[in-house]
Design brief:
Largest sheet: 6 strands, parallel
Order of helices and strands: EHEEHEHEHEEHEHEHEHEHHEHEHEEEEE
Helix content: 25-40%
CATH class of the largest domain: Alpha Beta
Shape: globular
Number of strands: 18
Distance between the termini: 33 Å
Radius of gyration: 22 Å
CATH architecture of the largest domain: 2-Layer Sandwich
Strand content: 15-25%
Length: 430
């Protein structure tokens, strides 16, 4: 039987969908494109914004229209957030626990042809273990080391749909990363809902995990998908200082450049505290790329708050800003705040911040023009090989280069989000 998979949202969902691919192939299913006529459609949903909900429902309905006789599985955050949701186009409902039971649920469905609703498992406090040995079509492998969040930022629904913080066992993380490296992956990305909070439930620290991972033979790069400023402890910074295996890029969400707005958001730091962390990182790695997330138009954000966000972004010299206009999310504390911002103003502020991000991105990238850098090449298309540097510069070279090789490139120019370069030499095996 053919299976099409649509994945919405975060890297954790991407990892979980890849686990489905692995287990479905073992069970004899054929993985096809989601747009094909399939026997089974899997939608790994997202609910981080109302727009995410709309996209999730759209994918569900598209699947059933494509093949009315198919089994449509809706899983993840949208289903978890809408516990009583009923849709005639859904045959199997799965929340954020028991995703690993997908194959047995499909077996049950095809045996009985009756809808299945898996009860929410968020009362459970254990990590739902998954283990990957390959990441189809990718040169960088993700490893989900953690799930859940207990920060309760006022704009965020995720703690309510992902549950308490829980971590993959220390030894299994080491085992999985080792297996992926032995399978040929040179870069591994650690991901989770609250990645830097790894180990709080196990009595171990994120720093201790990093220390063990960076000494795995054959691992060329270790990347952290995202980490909160409050989790960049002295111990984590010590590993960053001592090991070149950890890449020259950290994504550290700021969310607002105003202490007033940060407090409304229930973030756990002040601008001064965030700046001190940035300063400490740059003392260790002066040329590191620091990227961030910022929400604009949050309830109560004044023009002065937004102007401060623009100035702070310049001062902190981010390499890139992921800009999000505030989106109302039912069930969050921010919905109850006064002074919601007019949508037109939110869009205007978003455009301004995106323009600044483009300027900062170019300023950071052009510092490396004329330098030799190491690029992990991932794809070849339209006459160009494309890959990323350790500090996450996207590089294009006008020749075909085997994917999953790290090669030395001299950067020659910057154009529309890409650094252009010329090949020097091969460094690493395929």
């Amino acid at each position: 039987m053919k299976v099409g998979i649509a994945t919405l949202g975060c890297k954790v969902n991407t990892y979980e969908s890849e686990y489905w691919v692995q287990e479905l192939e073992k069970a004899g299913y054929e993985i096809a494109d989601f747009t094909d006529i399939c026997d089974v459609y899997l939608i790994n949903t997202c609910t981080v914004t109302n727009t995410s909900d709309i996209k999730s429902r759209k994918m569900i309905h598209q699947a059933k229209r494509r093949n009315p006789n198919s089994c449509v599985v809706a899983a993840g955050c949208f289903i978890e957030a809408n516990g009583n949701y009923e849709d005639p186009d859904i045959d199997i409902y799965i929340g954020n626990q028991d995703k690993s039971k997908l194959v047995s649920l499909l077996d049950e469905y095809f045996a009985n042809k009756e809808p299945i609703r898996v009860p929410s498992g968020l009362a459970k406090t254990t990590f739902e273990d998954m283990f990957l040995t390959h990441f189809e079509g990718r040169c960088r492998a993700f490893v989900k080391i953690q799930d859940g969040c207990e920060n309760f930022c006022s704009y965020c629904i995720i703690p309510y749909v992902r549950g308490k913080c829980r971590s993959k066992s220390f030894s299994k993380v080491i085992e999985e990363v080792t297996a992926l490296v032995e399978a040929g992956y040179q870069e591994v990305v650690l991901t989770g809902i609250h990645t830097g909070n790894y180990g709080v439930d196990l009595g171990v620290s994120f720093a201790s995990l990093l220390k063990q991972l960076v000494v795995i033979p054959g691992l060329a790069r270790l990347r952290i998908s995202s980490i909160e400023a409050t989790e960049l402890t002295d111990e984590v910074l010590a590993v960053l200082k001592s090991s070149p295996i950890i890449v020259d890029h950290l994504h550290i969400p700021l969310q607002a450049g105003s202490d007033h707005v940060l407090k409304l958001m229930n973030r756990k730091y002040t601008l001064a505290e965030y700046y001190d962390i940035i300063k400490a990182i740059r003392e260790i790695r002066p040329m590191i790329a620091i990227t961030t997330d910022i929400i604009v138009g949050f309830p109560g954000e004044t023009e002065e708050d937004f102007e401060q966000t623009l100035q702070i972004s310049k001062q902190f010299a981010f390499a890139k800003i992921h800009v999000f206009p505030y989106s109302e999310r039912k069930g969050t504390a921010a919905m109850q705040l006064p002074q919601h911002i007019d949508p037109t103003i939110k869009k205007q502020r978003a455009r301004q911040l995106v323009a600044l991000s483009n300027t900062l991105e170019k300023e950071y990238a052009t510092k490396f023009i004329g330098q030799k850098v190491e690029v992990l090449f991932e794809t070849y298309k339209d006459g160009y090989s494309v890959g990323h540097t350790s500090n996450y510069l996207k590089v294009k070279v006008a020749q075909e280069i085997p994917p999953n090789t790290i090669q030395v490139v001299t950067l020659t120019d910057y154009c529309f989000g890409y650094c252009l370069g010329s090949l020097e030499e091969v460094l690493c095996r395929m």
